[in-house]
């Protein structure tokens, strides 16, 4: 495609103009090489830390560019958006900074902390419906009734142009990149990135990454034929059922591959980035790394720029992700032991665990378990080990003390 080959799509010039508008108003986030991830993943990996934007997401770029292209009349009347996440924060924050009244329609199921965050940025929040579709319908109604301008989260040329400024920065910093790995939800980010990158470096490979639970773009482009799963996703920022009409056309023209990553791999990518780079990403933000983990042959030996698109992960989700990670690598284990129901038995058991460097997360003393004998009591313990190889010696030590022990699945 040439620079304006898809009807209605922004051009490279539009994206460069957006970069001029955003300069000094949006963080020019770091774009750094990761030696450890490069060694681990078999490719030369650079990370674009969009999780370090003020609202912890790339969404600020498109939101601000759209706000700055409003007419004076549109600015005076105000804007409206439907979102339960990063787009809501981006619109609310930059609208307030530019003296524009913003209304955000959020589903009634939105966590209170997200609602509070948007209100803190000065936006009027309307809670409506059980899901995004209902909130979006209400947005349309309110926009028509009050004369507000809709700021769409992805299917808008100005939004796409703003998101495309990510690619301008990446290629300016590391011109030798030959591959970009970009999360896809509605498609605004990858559409903008693809337009800019392809115009600047025609031979570059553009790879999108989606969750297997929400492979909307891959399915729409005929690149995924797996079963429709539905349900929740740890990558809620890209949990979009249907991509935009414009973004779909752009992706169809310019995106080379779409990798569909399973939920476990996305979780592992979050844990890997936190463990190696000490950077916190949400599931969607780690999707690019999940793509490299899912299809290593596709990226092997290449110079890959990965967009860490956001860092707004719920604390409870993060705890669950990290605990599940420890379980997968064998450092978090559950052991059931039968011990004599007399004083000191439990103390001896916990002393053996401590002697092997185990940290007990939870202990359940089941005196009346039907699985235990009358003169015994069952104990289930969740233990964090220093290393997965410590499990066999720990069990051997417990058995040597006379305890009947068996590992159990979580």
Can you describe what's shown?
By secondary structure, the chain is of the alpha/beta class. It folds into three domains: 12-58 and 159-323, Rossmann fold; 79-147, Rossmann fold, CATH 3.40.50; 330-408, ACT domain (Alpha-Beta Plaits, 2-Layer Sandwich), CATH 3.30.70.260. The chain is built from 17 helices and 14 strands. The chain has a six-stranded mixed sheet, with helices on both faces. A four-stranded parallel sheet has the order 5-4-3-6, with helices on both faces. It has a four-stranded antiparallel sheet with strand order 12-13-11-14. The radius of gyration is 25 Å and the shape is globular.
CA(first)-CA(last) distance: 51 Å
Gross CATH architecture of the largest domain: 3-Layer(aba) Sandwich
| Fraction of helical residues | 40-55%
The backbone outline, from C-alpha atoms, is: globular
For this structure, the CATH topology of the largest domain is Rossmann fold
As residue ranges, the low-confidence spans are none
Please list the strands of the largest sheet in the order they lie side by side: 1-2-10-7-8-9
Strand content: 15-25%
Q: What is the residue-averaged pLDDT?
A: 93
CATH top level of the largest domain is: Alpha Beta
- Report on the biggest sheet: 6 strands, mixed
Task: Decide which structural class fits the backbone.
Answer: alpha/beta
**Whole-number count of domains:** 3
The count of DSSP E runs of length 2 or more, i.e. the number of strands, is 14
In DSSP terms (H or I, runs of 4 or more residues), the helix count works out at: 17
Rg computed from alpha carbons, rounded to a whole number of angstroms: 25 Å
